[in-house]
Each structure stands twice: as C-alpha cells, then as structure tokens.
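Narrative of activities, Objective 1.

The group set out to show that a structural description can be obtained from nothing but a protein's sequence at a throughput compatible with the screening campaign. Below is one input-output pair from the validation batch, recorded exactly as produced.
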Amino acid sequence: MRFLFVGDSMTIGCPGDFTWRYRMWCHLETSLPGRYEIVGPRTALYDPAAGAPVSHDYAAPAFPPAARRHLAGWGEGWLHMAPLIGPAVAESRADVLLVSLGLIDLGFYTDAEQTAASVRAFVEGARAANPRVRMVCLPVIPNIRARDDAAFAAEVDRFNALLAKAVADLDTAASPLLLAAVPDTYDIRTDTYDGTHPGPAGEHKLAAAFADALHGAWELGARYGLRAEAPYAP
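Output recorded for this entry:
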C-alpha cells in the first residue's frame, strides 16, 4: 500500500524538524511492517534562509531517504495542490492520500467557499489518476492567527464545516474519503513552536490523527502509540 503525504508548511517542515511525516513513518514501521511504501515527488525540507525547499537536515538521521517522500510545500494549499495531485498520484501510484491543507488558502488566497471548491477539484484530479484512491483529510487545526483574529477564526470554522460536507458528498465505496479528527488536546502553546508549526508534541498528535482515522475506519495499521516509536526518536 502506497501512502502519499500532502500538505503545506506544517507538513514539509524546516531544517531541524522531525516532521509529523517522520512520526507517521515510525508508526507504519511498527503497524504495517513490509506492507507499505511512502511515495511522492519531493523529499526536502523548506529552508527559510534559502527561501526554497533545499534542506535535508532532518532531526532524525534514522529517517531513510525513501520514507521522506511527500507532496508538500511551504505556502502551498488546496488551491496549489489541486492541479498537482493528478500527476503525482499517476506517477507514484499512490493508494492512500494523507492530506493536511487549508490554512494557507484561507490566510492568503481564497475564502472558505473558494477553498472548498479547491478541495473538490483536488479529489477529482486524484480520482482521474486512480479511481480507487483513498483519502484522509485533516481539518484546519488550531493556530495563532485564528486565536487572535475572530474573523479569521470564523472563516476557519466555516471552511472546516464545508470540508466535512465535501468529504460526505464525495465519499464513495470505490474511492472512500475520510475526515480525520482534530486532536482534542491540541494546544498551540505546547504543541507548536510559533503558534502554527508543530513541534515534537504536535507532530505526534497530527500523526495520531491520521493513524487513528486509518485504523478506525479501514482497519489499516493500529491505533497510534508513542511507545511504538521508541527505537527511532524521543
């Protein structure tokens, strides 16, 4: 089974990050050993000093190059990924998409309704490449802008409701869609390093959101457990 991580700055990460992708890899190593592959056209972290995704300075040296593959980009949202997902799925032959997008769209490019339209275009593009692709989508998670800007917080809430509707509308038996749950305990004070981007605790919680959704809905892997990661990282 081939997994493709799709996301924005919270998924690509910066030099020195473990990334939630790494946490998910650790989980898959223990829950689906030998039965999965991580795929995607990119492997790098975003380097703010260079202003480009050119770093490979992951915090975990044990993270193998093949498992670092992804389709994530700093400043990229549903709007940007919609035209990219079809070719990425076709090239990688991805079976399951783990998608964390939306904050960038709402913050800089599109309103809730327009962002929801990008979600639908994304799903259409992915299915054109693989009619049986599965997708797990994470709503926009807590962030500092939503905490400090009531109007933006309302827009996030509006989009998350529209995302849930899109997932329900577009879900099919052949190509199921699933909405992951925002972690109840997610706290931007302790789970991020700047109010938006996840630190180690937040990385674990994002990986758990996807892992628990996969296990609960489709019996893929197991529920997320921190002890399973002990051989790889703190």
